[in-house]
Amino acid sequence: MEKLEFLIAHVEDLRNKLETQEKANKALKKEVKHIADEQQKWKGAVAVLKSERNRDEQSKLNKNVIISGLPKIKENNEENLNTVFRISEKLEVNLTKEVVTCKRIGKGANSQLKVMFENEELKKKFMEAKKKTNLNSSQPGFVEKHPIYINHELTSENQLLFKNTRDFKRQYNYKFAWISQGRILLKKTETGRNIEINTEEDLNKLIQKN
Fold this sequence. Notes:
By secondary structure, the chain is α+β, with helices and mostly antiparallel strands. It is built from five helices and seven strands. The protein has helices spanning 2-59, 77-91, 120-131, 156-171, 200-209, and strands spanning 64-68, 100-105, 112-117, 149-152, 176-180, 183-187, 195-197. The mean pLDDT is 86.
């Protein structure tokens, strides 16, 4: 009889311990979920802050273009500005010292010319004219003849994002990927809607739909 009572008491003790452990496990799972939810909130908040910072940095560059492919970019910005003027003449866009400045970035064969316009409208006119003309380095007066490339100046984050957007465009048969006022835009067809790409997550969402 004593043995039976002992066994019953032992089983009851084990049951109580199991119940206590289950409650502890549930509390722990709840705490882990709470921590995971908080981490997601923080990750989302950090992503928003990074996106806003990148947008602010990009807004400071929206009046600028980068010219590459020029054989010789001088340290003297006066000479480089004359090169910009010769390019603008070819594009039939009137520029003066009052509305544009420039400076060399980089060194040697990898150097480029950063051109800063007085306003975005003038830059837009310059870029639209560029689309209609195949530029090469002989046109500004250089002996060498190879393509000149003129691109929007982008933050390092947007450079990578635009590259990935162009890769996405090719892979998923989208028709257009372009830059407008510092914004990266994508369009599936001629008549499709413009899709703004602000982060890699925007591309991931589109990948899930395709």
